[in-house]
Amino acid sequence: MGDLEFRVYKVASEFGDWLAAFDGSELIFLGSYALGKKKVEGDLADFFEEQYHFQVGSFTPVKWSKGNFWNGKHKIKLQGTEFQVRVWLELLKIPRGTTWTYSELAKKLRKPSAVRAVASAVAKNPICYWIPCHRVVGKNTNKLKYHWGPELKAELLTSEGAM
Asked: Residues 91, 118, 119, 133: which is the catalytic one?
C-alpha cells in the first residue's frame, strides 16, 4: 500500500461552513459545522479510523481556494458496506425539491421491512449534501431529524423548494 495523502478544507456556503476531505482527488467526506467544530472534526476523525484504520491527531483545515466548491465537479469515493453504498446511490435519485420517507426509500431498495437499516445507512452518509440524505424525512415528530441538526435540514429543504 502506497502513502496516503489527504487534503482537508473548510468550505464556505450560504448554509455556513463545511468540512471537506479528499483522498487524492476524490471527495471522501463532507460535513457541516452547524453543530460545532468538535462535532464535525470528530466525525471526520471517526471516519478516518473506520475507513483507513488510523487515528488522526490535531489538524487545521485549509480554506478552500479553488473556485466555487459548490459549482465544481468532484469525483466521489464512497466507502461503506455494500448495503450502505446501495442506499447512498439510491439517495442520488431523489429529485431536488422533493423528499422521500425512510419507508419509501426502503421500498425503492426492495427492502420494505428494513426501514431501520436504511435509516442507519442514511445517517452514516459521509458525503452529506452532495449525496442528499437531507431529502429523506421521518414521519411525524422525526420529520427533520438530521445528523447535522434539524435547523440545517430545514434550511436545505427550504432552499430546494421541498418545504
From this structure: 133
**Is the CB of residue 83 less than 8 Å from the CB of residue 128?**
no
d(CA 8, CA 20): 6
d(CA 82, CA 20): 23
Mean pLDDT of 86-98: 97
Nearest to 45, CA basis, from 64, 59, 62, 24 = 59
Quote the CA–CA distance of 143 and 118 in Å, as a whole number: 15
Q: Could you tell me the pTM of the whole model?
A: 0.93
Residue among 48, 54, 117, 113 nearest 83 (CA)? 117
pLDDT digits (tens, 9 = 90+) for 134-156: 999 988 767 888 999 999 999 99
Q: Known catalytic residue: 128? A: no
Q: Which cell is 38 given?
A: 468538535
Measuring CA to CA, which residue among 78, 99, 98, 81 is closest to residue 89? 78
